[in-house]
Amino acid sequence: MDSKYNIVSIIRKKRDGQTLLKEEIKYLIDQYTADEIPDYQVSAFLMASFLNGLDEEESAALTKSMLHSGEIVDLSHVSGKKVDKHSTGGVGDKLSLILAPIVAAAGVPVPMISGRGLGHTGGTLDKLESIPGFTVDMDLARYKEIIGKHDLVLAGQTAEIAPADKRLYALRDVTATVESIPLIAGSIMSKKLAEGIDALVLDVKAGSGAFMKTTEDAIKLGEALVGIGTQFEKETIAYVTNMNQPLGYKIGNWLEVEECIDAMNGNGPDDIMEITYLLSGTMVYLGGKAATVKEGIEISKEMIETGAAFDKWLDIVEEQGGDVEMIKSPEKYPKAEYEFEIKSNKDGFVSEMDSFEIGMASVELGAGRKKKEDDVDPQAGIVLKKKIGDKITKGETILAGYTNKPSAIEAASDQLFGAVTIAEAKPEEVNLISHTIDKNGSRAFEL
């Protein structure tokens, strides 16, 4: 193969807007993984792909090559259809921690490999690691052991899974090629297909706090993801959901775990539970435990009402080394040293929230990373006291910030004050879920 293909020719071909053969894409990924092609040439390929795009066949070939750069997990020892969920990232998006125990409690195995936060979006692994002792790093043997025992595992990407994706993502991050829909799709799906799943549910965010700012772009990404899943014969359903304000009321790692504990005890905020039940209900349906998504939603609600989901959550926290007593009594968790409030300077209604700015303010306070190497502070974050549509009076608190970095308070306060718009008129309500995307295409959401 080495003598048949040439990396410069492949770059030139994509630069000129031509379609690459799947063998050319495989050659590029194989040789890059084997350190036979340098970063600068792959960077040129990424930029050419970003500017000229990759069609559905090229995107599938890229996904397949990244998938086969490492090990594909065999979960045949786990009975039943294995189903996972992936979110494209948002602010206050803690849904994985709630829906994974719901679905596992309903009898559908959930092999969940998640990522860390970067930029304004939070990461599932950082939230889990805010639980004292909780371990997300494991080898494949331990991953298989836990899913076999509990029908659930919450892990980070192992060295064996899609190593090419890990390297390509690092390059995309520093070459301004992150936002390419085919590259995003290949990155997400290569990891998810490697987990050993049979089906996948996708939560594609649209709005100020999402990578896709418009519904149209979110639909395009959803269609690309579902297209790849369908090509690999995995049942895949995506929903486009609104990220023009944070999900729930709490932003920041332990703060979000607290909100998840409330949710699993039946006290979750309405927006969180609406999307959680839709996603978990779809997972239960794809897992063969419900005849319809509606029935899956009802089963999901039952898992919360009976306490089965919370029991499953306690089991997995204990199995992965977490402090179960802290989950049972979250009020014992140490608080951040500094607290401050942002108050309204007039009467009216909250009409807009810039989720991106709120997310970046939480990073400033210590809840996220500016660089991959940064540590996160599990105590830092933001608690919303009001959300879009809520009435507010002058002097009333809009949100509160928590940090152990007093030097960050002034800048974060300015950022947060500017992120909220107060208007005289109450804004119109916006649907949380706008579209469904499956193998038959995209359509307006309805149950």
Quaternary assembly: single chain
Helix content: 40-55%
Distance between the termini: 50 Å
Q: What sort of overall outline do the alpha carbons produce when their principal axes are compared?
A: globular
Number of helices: 17
Mean pLDDT comes to 94
In short:
The protein is 45% helix and 16% strand. It has 17 helices and 14 strands.
What does this structure look like?
- The chain is α+β, with helices and mostly antiparallel strands and 447 residues long.
- It has helices at 7-15, 22-33, 39-52, 56-67, 95-105, 124-129, 140-150, 163-174, 181-194, 215-231, 253-264, 270-286, 293-305, 308-319, 324-328, 355-365, 409-419, and strands at 83-87, 110-114, 152-156, 199-206, 235-242, 250-251, 338-343, 348-353, 381-384, 391-392, 397-403, 420-423, 433-438, 441-444.
- The protein has a five-stranded mixed beta sheet, with helices on both faces. A four-stranded antiparallel beta sheet has the order 6-9-11-7.
- Helix 2 (22-33) runs parallel beside helix 4 (56-67), helix 12 crosses helix 13 (293-305) and helix 16 (355-365) runs antiparallel to helix 17 (409-419).
- The radius of gyration is 22 Å and the shape is globular.
- The N and C termini lie far apart (50 Å).
Topology:
Elements: H1 7-15, H2 22-33, H3 39-52, H4 56-67, E1 83-87, H5 95-105, E2 110-114, H6 124-129, H7 140-150, E3 152-156, H8 163-174, H9 181-194, E4 199-206, H10 215-231, E5 235-242, E6 250-251, H11 253-264, H12 270-286, H13 293-305, H14 308-319, H15 324-328, E7 338-343, E8 348-353, H16 355-365, E9 381-384, E10 391-392, E11 397-403, H17 409-419, E12 420-423, E13 433-438, E14 441-444
Parallel strand pairs: 1-4, 2-3, 4-5
Antiparallel strand pairs: 5-13, 6-9, 7-11, 8-10, 8-12, 9-11, 13-14
Helix pairs in contact: 1-3, 2-4, 4-9, 4-10, 5-11, 5-12, 5-13, 5-14, 8-9, 9-10, 12-13, 16-17
